[in-house]
Amino acid sequence: MSEVDFECAECTNPVEPFLRSERMPHIWCPGCGIGTTVNCFTRALIDSKANLEKLVVVSGIGCTGRVAGYLKLDSFHTTHGRAIPFATGLKLANPKLTVVVYAGDGDLSAIGGNHLIHAARRNIDLKVICVNNLIYGMTGGQTAPTTPEHATTSTNPYGTFEPGFNLPHLVDAAGAVYVARWTTFHVRQVARSMQEAFKKKGFSFIEIISPCPTLYQRRNKMGDGLDAMKYYKQASKVKNGAPTGEVGLTKTGEIAVGKFVDRDRPDYRELMVHRFHESLGDEYVETGELVCS
Amino acid sequence: MQLTEIRIAGFGGQGVILSAIVIGKAASVYEGGFATMTQSFGPEARGGACSAQCILSDAPILYPYVSRPDILVVMSQEAYAKFTPELKEHGILIVEEDLVRIGDLKPGVKVYSVPATRLAEELGKRMVLNIVMVGFFAAVTGLVDADALRKAVGDSVPPHFAELNLKAFDKGFEYGVAKVKATVEAGEVEFHAHAIPFAE
Amino acid sequence: MKADPAGVLTGVHFLDGDHACCEGALAAGACFAAGYPITPSTEVVERFAARIPKVGGTFIQMEDELASSIAIQGAVWGGAKAFTVTSGPGFSLMMEHIGYAVMTETPCVFVNVQRGGPSTGLPTLPAQSDMMQARWGSHGDYEVIALCPNSPQECFDLTITAFNLSEKYRVPVMFMMDECVGHMTEKVIIPPAEQIEIEPRRKTHKPHDAYKPYECNGDGSLVPEMAHAGEGYKFHVTGLTHDERGYPAMTVAAQQKLVGRLRDKISKAADDLLLVEQDNTADADVVVVTYGITSRVAQRGIDSARAKGLKVGKLRLKIVWPFPDQLIKKLSQRAKAFVVPELNLGQISREVERAAGGVKTVCVPHAGGGVHRPEDILKAIQEASR
Fold it and tell me: Measured between alpha carbons, how far is A126 from A178 in angstroms, rounded to an integer?
């Protein structure tokens, strides 16, 4: 286990030991919420005393996809939408790793939507952190599957008219064992949920509603990052255990937050090992890490 | 053995492919020769007409497909109708006699028929008719050594079915031996498996 | 090093090409596969799914080929040797991840049992029409390695070679079978494990703070050393253009340096990557350049031509990419013509034409769905020799 000196006198920021400081400044806009989620993530790492040598971050493409590159961990910046299947292979090859998928809403639920539901169905032991800014940021503010109806985007300049995804409902229905939603206003709750997910075995999903002041807030005349915080504070309502079918988002309405799902069922690997023991008996060669020669 | 082209055809579920595997395996793995087996795939392989091709030779086989078989084994009327026109003149036609009604044939075609389904039923399992056919094929063509074929039968079927399949092989083989004997006694010319070199 | 006996099914078998490919992968040490069903390739992973729990490892049937082709790369970075298997439409879906494997230098094998295309085409019938796709299918400039077996025995032997080369060069290797070879059953001899040579992974043994994931060693090799996740290196891997530390570097200089090295590590190893079979090429007037199943059909045409007194040689490519430019160039100094039969409308024949520098090159095209008639190849040889 690597040593992190949290009391380091030279460290100006408690987050610094977890960052590749040589890569700063980051690419995120002023007021963007992704950095806030990274702060929460590092807080969760500290509080959970996670073994940082065995914790891997996998991301896809997009603004949130850049998180992997800034964290001083084994980190993989994969292709657009495919963080989950990459992470699936990684976790199955080395079950000792704690594998975190850190990705945006477009990456996870549009181009990667199929992988999202199948990983939840299989209950692959992944911790998925979904930073949901309701829009495509990196490419310039296009409609995402999460964009609320009537919000204006660069590809729906007259307002969106297609219904958006309710992500907690989607992953709940697909079989996730842990589903929570917070906003970037809820920094303590986010960090706590992350810690819970680290401990949880199976497919965990944390949605963090996050501002994109440059593209979403501005275009929809919703102010800047600070205004987003005010809105989150005012509109959020904690509804732990709420039926996920009732937590869909609208453009300006209530934001249901809290831990919606926390249940137990065997993960993919447990099911696989159990099945092979049952079917093959002594012929089964159970493996841990698949370390090649 | 000179290059010999064999087609085995019937309907899905009769074990057409397995019979071709047994013949190819016996000739190549156990007799040290060369065999190339190919099969029809797709919807037709999941029921309906089913066909496998097996080429045997004592030299490496280049061209993988059968176009003019020296030997045609058919287990259904549909297969008979479809493939008999391909059979070479003076080729061998082996038929499941209760499933195939024979019509006009090319000159010199030698026909051997066997009630393979009935013989299989006598063993209590209709499904082994394909191996009865292989035993019969071995006896009437003399192309592949019977013991090599027995070995190939033994390790091509699930272990708990090995004994049954070996019985099926022997049943078909004995029926074939008797048939050939009767043919020779009747004064007919005995068939010798012949090869047809590549014609340009 | 030698193969681990656990995965080696030593003996004489009667196997089809798909199953033999699976046995080759197991012998090579593959312990992870991800796949999605597609004719005529599925038998490879079906066998792997049945065998791997008894050998030690994991197979997962993914939701599509996009997922399969990246799951194997996750497994590789987790420590496994891994591969995926597909055919035409699935291969098209995998293209982006071939590029990712090239860019991130992830050793892995993509098996493509080629069928007739475009689109759904001829699922149960052979073609060799993905040869250019294997070379150029992903965007950007890059080099890969591609092999073509012509029998179930070679499906076994060359699958091991494919894994070995992917490890040696840290590059995705395309294993370009075809439906005919994949579904053809023949004798396959699997030697004892101690007779099978295995290329170990280029693992790093540097101290954590001295390791840069994309730095060449200074020993002349252009292939960097690799770390696995969970070993404490805390390294970064990205499909973005990156520097030696693995960090994104969006400059002309970084692009030139990285893309140049990715090309050079393959193109400068041309001698090591020459794997061909030559018959009577030294004094040939006509050289038939052939690969995969077509090489067997062509042999009959060649034999007939030689029987007629024509001086015909055969050059069979077992490694098609990188293309053996220098060898073709050498042969073109003597030969009057090249004849290239292939189950496509002219792909490798263009490469031959390019390398032959003006020597007549005759393509013998075939749209796929079957193999050539040997007499058509003979006819092309006769015309070329005039």
Answer: 11
- Decide if C174 contacts C114 (C-beta within 8 A): no
CB of A35 closer than 8 Å to CB of A64 = no
Please name the amino acid found at residue B44: E
Q: Choose the mutation target among C186, C290, C296 for the interface with B, i.e. most B CBs under 10 Å.
A: C186
What CA–CA distance (Å, rounded) separates C164 from C157?
Answer: 11
Q: Give how far Cα C26 sits from Cα of A167, A204, B64, B148, C78, Å.
A: 40, 33, 27, 29, 18
DSSP letter, residue C351: H
| Among the partner residues B25, B29, B38, nearest to C183 by beta-carbon distance | B38
- Tokens representing B96 are 């499941």
CA distance, residue C307 to nearest chain B CA (Å): 11
**What is the C-alpha to C-alpha distance for residues B27 and A257, in angstroms, rounded to an integer?**
71
Asked whether the predicted pLDDT for residue C336 surpasses 90, the reply is yes
**Please, are residues B59 and B2 in contact by the beta-carbon 8 Å criterion?**
no
Handedness of CA A268, A269, A270, A273 (dihedral sign): positive
What confidence score (pLDDT) does residue B188 get? 60
For residue C5, the model assigns a pLDDT of 96
CA distance linking residue C51 with residue A167, whole number of Å? 38
What integer pLDDT is reported at residue A1 of this predicted model? 45
- Give me the pLDDT at residue B199, please: 32
Condensed to tens digits (0 to 9), the pLDDT of residues C77-124 reads 999 999 999 999 999 999 999 999 999 999 999 999 999 999 999 999
Domains of chain A are 16-265 (3.40.50.970)
Q: How confident is the model at residue C44 (pLDDT cuts 50, 70, 90)?
A: very high
CB atoms within 10 A of CB A12: 8
Asked if C185 and B24 come within 8 Å (Cβ–Cβ), the reply is: yes
Q: Which of A73, A96, A283 sits opposite C234 (nearest CB)?
A: A73
pLDDT per 10-residue tile (average), chain B, 200 residues: 94 92 98 94 62 96 94 95 94 96 90 97 96 98 97 96 98 96 72 37
* ipTM for this model: 0.97
B56 SS3 class? strand
Q: Is the CB of residue C164 less than 8 Å from the CB of residue C199?
A: yes
Residue with tokens 């209709």: B126
Q: Which domains are delineated in chain B?
A: 4-99+107-185 (3.40.920.10)
Q: Which residues of chain A carry a pLDDT beneath 70? A: 1-11, 293
Alpha-carbon span B27 to B35, nearest angstrom: 7
The Cα–Cα gap between C375 and C381 comes to: 10
Instruction: Please provide the size of chain A in residues.
Output: 293
Judge contact between A181 and A256, C-beta under 8 A: yes
Distance from CA of C323 to the nearest CA of A (A): 29
Helix (H) or strand (E) run with residue A101 in it: strand A98-104
Q: CB distance from A21 to chain C under 8 Å?
A: no
Q: How far is CA C13 from CA A36, A290, B138, C188, in A?
A: 60, 28, 21, 5
CB contacts, 8 Å: C66 with chain A: 81-82, 85, 115
- For chain C, which domains are there? 5-195 (3.40.50.970), 277-385 (3.40.50.920)
pTM (predicted TM-score): 0.95
Q: Going by C-beta distance under 8 Å and a sequence separation of 6 or more, which residues neighbour residue B187?
A: none
The pLDDT of residue A12 is 72
Amino acid at C44: V
Shortest Cα–Cα distance, B21 to chain C (Å): 8
Q: What type of residue sits at position A14? A: P
Q: What is the Cα gyration radius of chain C?
A: 21
Report the candidate in B173, B169, B176 with the shortest Cα–Cα distance to residue B150.
Answer: B169
Q: Beta partners for A19?
A: A71
- Whose structure tokens read 């309907």? B11
C338 near C289, Cβ under 8 Å? yes
